Every structure is written in C-alpha cells, then in structure tokens.
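Minutes, methods subgroup
Present: GH (chair), OT, SY

1. OT presented the first of two proteins processed in the latest run. Sequence and structure tokens recorded below as shown on screen.
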Amino acid sequence: MRLYGIPNCGTVKKARAWLELHDVKYEFLDFKKHPITETLLSGWLKQIGWQRLLKKTGPTWGQLPVEVKASIKDNVSALALMLEKPNIIKRPVLEHKGKVLATGFNETDYRNLTI
C-alpha cells in the first residue's frame, strides 16, 4: 500500500496516524521528493476523475487566475495543471496495487477499506 502526499499536510498526518494506529503497513511517498509522474497521475484520473482528485479548497487553487480555473474542464486539462502544481492534488492519495482506494482522509472510508 502506498500513501502519497506531503508530510506537513494536516490531512496527510491524520491518515498516517490512522494507518499506524491500525497497524496497516504502507509506504509514504512525498510529492516533493518523489514527483508524481504523468503515467501515475493519468492512471488515477482514469479511475476516479479530475473532480475527485483536484483540490479546490487550498491556497494553490485560490491563487490561480480565473482564466486558468475556468480552463479546467476534463482529465486532460486537470492533468497538465496537477503536473505543474502538485500541491493542487487532493491528498493524501491511498493506493494499493495501482488502485486508488481513497483521496483525502475520512475515518469511516478508511475503516471500510477492502484490500
């Protein structure tokens, strides 16, 4: 199992703490030390779509020009933005054997994971 994110993100910290408390083995991959590849990100987008993967609540999205925000309409346009600004990816992303299990952290969702 892999957990992708950035270590100082509060939501990532909650997910990591939950996984550790429940003795779930995982590998943590920091977006900044292990940049997300186009192939990996494309796979995620095919599975869950750009609407679930794009984080519109953070400062990175808020600082984008209105024209850029308006141009994000599909997986292709979101992919380009996410590759340029990985902080705009909703985190953490929990993945197992190439399948996205969860984005963000919700204790109920994590409790109901089937691996």
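2. SY then presented the second protein from the same run.
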Amino acid sequence: MIWNSSDFEVLTGTQEKVSTKHFNTSCYLCGNKECSNVFIENGIPIVKCKNCGHVFSTYKQDEHYQGYWGDDEKIYDIEWWDKAHKDLYKQFIQIFLTEKSGRILDVGCGLGFFLKLVRQIKPGWETIGYELSPPAVNFAKTKNGLDNIFNQPVEKSRIKNNSFDIITLWDVIEHIPVPQPKLKFLHSILKPGGILFLQTPNFPIQLKKAKLKKFFRGMNTDGHYLEAKDHINDYTQKTIVSLGNQCGFDKYQFFILKPILSLSGSRAQIGRYLKLLYYYVTKTLWLLSFKTVNLNNTLFVTFRK
C-alpha cells in the first residue's frame, strides 16, 4: 500500500479508521512525502520512503521527548541498565578509549551507568553527559555520583567547537524525529579525528522478528513489536550512513559488539546464553563475509570527523 500526504488514511487490521492528526508522512531523511507501508503496530503505520529507502514511524513524537524514563526511580530496572549492559560497555571502553586521558560526551546518558564505568576504568578521562529526563539526571547524580550531567538538549549548550575526543549515543538516535540539527552540532564540538559512536536497532532484523511475533500472536493482535511511539526512525546500514553524510561525517565503520546480556523484563539465564550464541554466530558470519553481512540485532557504527 502506498501512502502520501494528500490522501493518507490509516487502517488497522479491522479496517477501523484512525485519526491522522498525530501522524507524519514526510521522510525525516529526504523530505519525500510518498512512502509504502512496512508494518502496522497498534494502528500506527511504519513506512518506507519511496525515494531514499528510509523507514520511519508515522507517529508524531515530540522532538525533545522527556517521558521515556518516567518519574519514579523505583521502576528503574537496575539489573538491566547496569549489569546487563556492563560487558558491552567494557568492550567499548577497551576498543575506543585507548588513551590514558581524553574527553568523552554521552548524549542521552540516561541513568549514567556508562559514564560511571568509564570513570572507574579510565579515571584519566573527563566524562560529561546530557539527558532530557529530570528524574534520570537526578538518579545519575545522586545514585551514580556523576557531577557533570546536564538536563537539557546538548545542542542548546555552550560547548566550544573541537571539545571532545569521543561522543556516544547509546540507543538514542532512533528516538529523535529530526536528528540532523543535533548531529551537526555534535560534529562541530568533536575534535578533528574524533569519534562519534551510534548504537541503534538493526531494522531489517528487528522487522523480521516483529513479523514472526505478530504471525504467532495473530495478525490483527496489538502488542509490543517495533516501539512505534518511541522508535521514530528505523535505520539500516545504508540509511544511518546517509544520515551521517548529511551532517558532515564521511568516514564510517561498523562493528559487532557484545549484546545486552539479559532479556528485558526477564531474569532467566537462558536469555543470556541465547544472546551470546547469536552474537558469536553473527560475528563469525560478519568476519567470513569480509564485514558485508550484518545480521546482528543492533547496529554499532562510528563516524570520524
């Protein structure tokens, strides 16, 4: 099915019309208004641009959405955000923080567990974080002991040009409807030769998983599939590179890093083992294919200035 801005009509599996006032039909990468349906989640179409191939949710989300973390620290799953991420964070630090000192900025730093680990392993590095959620910032400061955490969009800061060696965005870029202004600002404050690191779901793999899940649940069943209200932009290797090019970056490299060692909402150890098995299988295939076949659940990409 083809959608465009002039005749956009959203239908659920039961053919119930949905109000279009909360929907966007213009591609966030190229501005094209013609797109084709890829998936429908709870009445929200996820579509693919007919011009550049970018996939995005048609749900209109605030540009600086603050509700992701909620307002109650008691609901934070510390096991997930701290312990399950720790091996991934350690691997990143080992690969990229090779110098004894430097400056690292984490955009969308959440509860601050990544920056806390950087300070523990690489005490010579200066750590700074920006986060939109006031409760998350409070947690990072009071529970994780981080002082340089700021509660505002980073592009509204007064950070000087050429200030950072590394800038990270862990599971952030997919939440931003129009990411170009932020990435262009980050390009300006990155030192020449510095690294911008992005982590985001690998959409082709996530889509296959969502379709399988919907098939087994029943095609008209609502549920949690692709996070259509949170993940506004869904990236492939091609489209994440296109975004980087738009924002001034031209040197990129993909990696396959360790998984988050838990299933969200589950304490079962089997989830850890299955994720590790999948990681080793996909990494082996990645290497055997000379880094051309990426079946990992997550995209890890660096851009250099």
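Chair's summary of item 2: The helical segments are 78-96, 113-121, 134-142, 180-189, 203-217, 237-246, 269-288.
Next meeting: continue with the remaining queue.
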